[in-house]
Specification:
alpha/beta, Quinone Oxidoreductase, Chain A, domain 1, Rossmann fold
Chain lengths: 351, 351
């Protein structure tokens, strides 16, 4: 590489400055800037185009053992994203390739030779889905929904599936995929706009607005829309909604524990499901899913889901926020207030 | 039947008089007496010898939907038991046969022709185990432990199993069977006598006394005795112990929900496991077991377990209380205070 065209460019980054108590506030973040470095032999330089903002990020900010190590204080905040290769000394990547991976919250992602493999850096095919769909149905949320539903939920035609966070990234995929597999699908979401979209656009059989109808909204909605009980509950929220669904499950029901967004910003202990003995009464199962376990089968899921996008059986909605990495802290907060409508994406640059 | 020798005999019964709030007190029970009736064509009359007293009884006293209907007010309290046939007009049963079934808390159990099959009345072979072992390892607790461990827990040699209520009826079978299957076995029980017995007599690798060592007894004990984490947790108690074990589980762990005796007499809501998100982090599973689902395989389990009793690999302990049905209320209470040591049995009559 004779001329490195980014020699004068700054890479803007958002780093974790402090661990949050409750909702992450401004004190959690530090904004830094550093020169963009030319890749060494075997390395790749990616310009970030868009970042995936996910509830799981809140967990990564906590200290302590989890399914992956926490983000360290001072480290660039971890984030999945899509980008374009702007410099490469790796035979597998050429300038102009569109890629997905884990750039973190920064404008340029430099992947050293020995990190290319374990970084998850991979070329993506925009004929299978748009850039933002690669962060949604064809990305981590889609993979989570696919394997959580298919491997843990094990849907059978004619069964009833309930999914919370129905209009969110994982919920969209889960509900539509369950519908395609022949299930009756009932969503739970916040507000009439999300509920209406889930039913009209995504073809759910019904959607319960947990914010409407008072304290018994979910209970009443389940009674009305799941007359044959609940065979699969795909849980993204935890808390009271999980507890309520537990009162309506069928024998041999499967509860997929994918997340618990209602509990992530607690400053008090997590609310355990007080109705968990419904598992005993109903010989039911509650099981956790972590998407990384299925990495060797992502390609299979992407192929199937891309087929549904192409033939129109599956739709997707991304809530794309502009503003670059500086807008990251405020944008992340939208997830926890439920302000996002669809998969939350932060646009960092244009291709 | 020319002479019915029980024409002058009274059948003493304990009936449910009121649904308990918290621990069942004297007001819950009504003592009745009625004549012993001669069996009609196809019927069987059983003299109760011993009754099985089980934590599940507390659940049967509550109103509301569960895995079986509640005992109705005024009904003879439901109980499993063993007895001897004292009169029979059924071709499958002869006077003198030793039988097991669900006599309820009464001295004589009259089984009508159309109820013989669904009552579960069955002859038992005292060469396979003693009368009280037929209420323990070879009875419902043993079946619960066997299928809960083998079908839900799915033990593999080299794994670590933890079982609470280790000295209780289900716990004995679970721990010994897991040991036989090659697991490291750690019990949790209350008091040094039970813990010592479980290790010395039953061959558990260790037993944690949850009553000793303060609030962190279980946490500390698990750290010490499960250096490789917990692969299977067989839970009979719920509450804080379940929560603590959840912090020590391994990837793909199985939590068998068999009971929650710490919660059965709550007058406040059940304590949900606030650490349930450990299921997510560890891709682990929590699943309920109800023994009745395995009725068509009881014979297989009995044969295997009787073999272990015979060759000495399995031992059993029953806590036999004398005093007849009148002693039922006080004896039942021992379960909830943990006073019983071994499978709690109420002796009703001598053979």
């Amino acid at each position: 590489m004779a001329d490195f065209p980014f020699a004068e460019t700054s890479n803007h980054q958002v780093r974790l400055a402090a661990r949050p108590q409750g909702l992450p506030g401004p004190a959690c973040w530090q904004f830094t800037e550093s020169p963009v470095a030319e890749p060494a032999e075997g390395g790749v330089l990616v310009k970030t185009l868009a970042l995936s903002l996910d509830p799981a990020m809140r967990g990564w900010m906590n200290e302590g053992k989890s399914y992956i190590p926490p983000v360290a204080i001072g480290e660039v905040m971890r984030a999945g994203g899509v980008g374009v290769v702007v410099a490469s000394r790796h035979p597998g990547f050429a300038v102009g390739d569109t890629v997905a991976g884990g750039p973190g919250v920064q404008e340029y992602w430099s992947v050293a030779a020995d990190q290319v493999k374990r970084s998850g850096l991979a070329k993506i095919d925009l004929r299978l889905g748009s850039l933002t769909q690669w962060l949604n149905v064809l990305g981590m949320p889609g993979m989570t929904g696919y394997f959580g539903l298919m491997d843990v939920g094990q849907p059978k035609a004619g069964e009833t599936l309930v999914v919370s966070g129905a209009a969110g990234a994982v919920g969209q995929t889960v509900g539509q995929l369950a519908r395609i597999k022949g299930c009756r699908v009932v969503g739970i979401a916040g507000g009439p706009a999300k509920c209406e979209w889930v039913v009209r656009e995504l073809g759910f059989d019904a959607c319960i607005d947990y914010k409407a109808g008072g304290a018994t909204a979910v209970k009443d909605g389940l009674k009305q829309h799941c007359p044959d009980g609940v065979d699969i509950y795909f849980d993204n929220v935890g808390g009271d909604i999980l507890d309520t669904v537990l009162t309506r499950i069928n024998k041999k029901a499967r509860i997929v524990i994918c997340g618990a967004i209602s509990q992530y910003n607690n400053t008090t202990p997590v609310q355990g499901p007080k109705n968990y003995l419904s598992l005993l009464v109903n010989r039911a199962r509650m099981e956790g899913i972590v998407v990384f376990d299925y990495a060797d089968r992502y390609a299979v899921a992407v192929a199937e889901l891309a087929g549904y996008l192409k033939d129109g059986r599956m739709k997707s909605k991304e809530d794309v926020v502009e503003g670059g990495v500086a807008a990251f802290p405020a944008t992340l907060s939208k997830l926890f207030t439920g302000e996002n409508f669809g998969k939350l994406v932060l646009q960092v640059a244009s291709a």
